[in-house]
Amino acid sequence: MGLYREQRVLLAVLGWCSMLATPISGGTPTTKLAHRLYCLRVGVILSVLLTFLYLRVWDITRDFHLVSVSYVMWLTSVIAETCVIISTLLANAYNVSSFRALSDLIEHLERSIEERNTAGHVYPSYGVAINALMVVYLVYHSILIYFSYQMGISFALQIRLEVVISDFYTVQLLFLLLAIGRCARQLRRMLQVSIVSNRVSDVCAVLRLRDDLVRAVALVNRCYGVFFLGCGVAWVVSITSILYFDFVLEGAFFLDARSLGLHTLMFVWKSTIIGGLLMVAGTVMDRVNEIMQATYRCETHPSNNRRLTKMLDKALLKCQFQDINFTVYGLLTIDNSLSYTVIGSIVTYLVILVQFRQVEERIENMVN
Questions:
Q1: Which pTM was predicted?
Q2: Is the pLDDT of residue 98 over 70?
Q3: What sections of the protein cross the membrane (predicted)?
C-alpha cells in the first residue's frame, strides 16, 4: 500500500530535477531552509532551460532550412517540451502547499480504505511497473539520441533531456490518477456493502472519504493543470512537425529510411503516452462519479432506517450540484474529448501549412 512509497525512485529523480515541489509542513528553520534550497534549484534549472531554449530558437531561426530535416523536426519538438517544463516548474513552485495537501490526502485515503477493507489485499503493486517504465523510457530516448545524432551540430543541443523529464513526469501523473481510480473503486464497493448491511456509521464514513476523494481531484487540477495543458500543446506541435516535415516538405528535403522510421516511432510513442494519459483521466473520472450509484442498491434492499434514507437522499442531492472532472483550471476537460480536439487541431494546422506551402511554390514558379 502507498502510492508515494511505490513511486519513491521516480519521485527521487523528479526531485533532483525540481519537478516536484518541496512540501512545507511547518515553520521550523529546517523546512524553511529546504524550501529556500528548492527555490534555488528551481532558479538554476530555469536558467539552464532558458539558455538552451534561446540557443535552440536562435539555431532554428538563423537558418530554418538546415541540411537535416530530422534535426529541424527534433528541434521544434524539444522547444515545445522545454516550454512545457518551464511552465510546470513555475506552477509547481507556486503550488507548494497544494502538493503537500494532495500527498497527505492520498495517504489518508489509502490508509483509511486499507483499514476498513475486509477483502484482504486491496491494491496491486505498481512499483515494479513504474521502475520498468522508467527503464523503457531511458532506453527509448537513448536509441533516439544515438540514431538521430547529427555530425557538425553541438551534442548539448541534441541530448533532449527535457523530453525525458516530461515523460517521467507524465508517468508520475498517470499512476497518481490510477491511485485515485482504485480508491474510487474500493469506495463504491464499501458503500454498497454498508448500505446492504444497513450500517449508518459505515455509510457516513464512506461518504466522508468520498468527499476527501473529490477534494483530491480538485487538488490534482490545481497542481497539474498547467502540465495537462502543456501535454496537449506539445502533442500538437510534435505530431504537426512530424507530418509537415515528412510529407509536406518531402520535395524540399531528402529524408532517408532511418529518419522516417525514427519519426514514425516518435509519432506512435507520443500519441500513446499522451493519449493514454487522457484515456486514464476519463476512466478515473467515470469511477469517481460512479461511487454514488451504489445508493441505488437501496431500492433492491429496502430498509426502515429513515436516518440512512435521509442521509443518502442528501448525498444524492449534493452530488447533483457537483461537477467532478479533471480540468485545466475549469477551461478544458481532461478526457478522450481532448484527444479529439488535439487531432482536430493537428489537421487544421496541417491544412493551413499546406496552403502556405502551395502559395510559396506558386510564387517561386512565377519568379522562375
A1: 0.82
A2: yes
A3: 42-59, 71-94, 126-149, 161-181, 224-248, 260-282, 338-356
